[in-house]
Amino acid sequence: MGSTLNVPPGSEPARPKSHKLWGGRFAGGPAPEFEALNASIGIDFRLWPHDIRLSKAWAVALWGANVLTLEESRELERGLDAVGARIAGGEKPAAGDEDIHTMIDRLLHEEVGDVASKLHTGRSRNDQVATAARLWTMEATTKLDVAVRLLQSVMVERAAEVESVLMPSYTHLQRAQPVSAAHWLLSHFWPLERDRARLKGAARSAAVLPLGSGAVAGCAYPISRTLLQGTLGFDAITPNSIDAVSDRDFVAELLFTVAMVATHLSRLAEDLIIYGSSEFGFVQYGELYSSGSSMMPQKRNPDALEIARGFPARALGNLTTLLATLKGLPSSYNKDLQDDKRALFDSVDTLLLVLPAVAGTLAEIAFRPARMKAALSSALMATDLADYLVRRGATFREAHGAVGRLVRASEEQGIEMHALPRAAFTEAHALFGDDVFDALSAPASVAHREVEGGTGPKAVAVQLAAARKAVEQ
Length: 473
Ligand code: ARG
Description:
Layout: H1 32-38, H2 41-44, H3 48-64, H4 70-88, H5 100-112, H6 125-161, E1 166-171, E2 174-180, H7 181-186, H8 189-206, E3 208-209, H9 225-232, E4 236-237, H10 241-244, H11 249-275, E5 283-284, H12 303-326, H13 340-364, E6 366-367, H14 369-374, H15 382-391, H16 396-413, H17 422-428, H18 436-439, H19 442-447, H20 457-472
Parallel strand pairs: 3-4
Antiparallel strand pairs: 1-2, 5-6
Helix pairs in contact: 3-4, 3-6, 3-9, 4-5, 6-8, 6-13, 6-20, 8-11, 11-12, 11-13, 12-13, 15-16
The structure holds arginine.
Arginine (ARG) binds next to helix 6.
């Protein structure tokens, strides 16, 4: 209401009349405060290429349904192209353009005059925005897939460099067993491969055409939805108009996928952040994706990785926001849904920044094999020592106990296991032979693990080849 509050009806100063797709049944309003809240153009402006495209297809569909003459349909197509060119050339929204659909309609009137008023026959912004958002989502999944694949190929390249480098693996962040550094790096590759399947799933969910659903009950003109589907590149058409105008499952699926990718990246980032600390020193950051400190001259901070580690918080927030919006919403379109795009665009935009930054960070990181090797204390081969006894006929429990005693002895004496005297081994178990020290070597430990998916050199080579093939496909 604002400034018009104390003015007698009819005597308000005339505000420039904005172009509206509705308003016939209203004598006054809307309040500027409402317009400010209701407008979505700040968010949905970027849907314009998709709105132009679907509107052109709609003009043709209306000709097919005998609503428009061929000339009118052509004129609308030409006008829409001109509008697209204007927007591409920098045309900005006018005050009062409620959303991108309104803006395009206004510009179309400027381009072709009254015939523009025929384009909205049989359609609603409800099926229009759902269609545009789906087209945008289909495009986004392709971009995301490319960006994920780029990171994966960096992983494969870097993994190949350190195939024969050994480092500790960790459980509970405690040194566990030696593994190939490639095996560790590829442990972050496969989660992304699963994410690519999720992206494909989200793309499939998006590729169902809602156009032709009208506001809620379906279009009243005999347009061909099959033709629209083909023209716009959808896989199928929605089977129920009520569902069609409010189905945002495809948004939820993409938001979940983004949250999942972000979560995976955060774990890689965290590994690299820990490994890059002076205490670990397994990797050293390059300069392109790090920053310095304004106070401490010595600092090189892994900011890109820290941002990648932090991003899933927002990605999860966006997913939660959308699911909370959908929960308990009455059937069909409700204005609550307008905010779906804020969450969708933010998640996708940010991930499209994070992915190349993580790829760039990983590409320029320096591995430090000597530091990795130095961390391979012989306690990491305790399991191998037990396996040694098992191979000589001991039960695993008996072997576990014997090796446990050796570990305790080495800890008490403050020396590595391989520095214990030969006699200490025989004392722990009679089956220990002279070759016991071979069993304490890290290369021997990994060599025993040629099981599929294990860290044995041959198994890792097979894994690397499979990863390479996956990114090439
Ligand atoms: N800007 C709206 C949105 O993004 C378009 C649909 C508006 N529909 C309506 N009935 N007011 O959801």
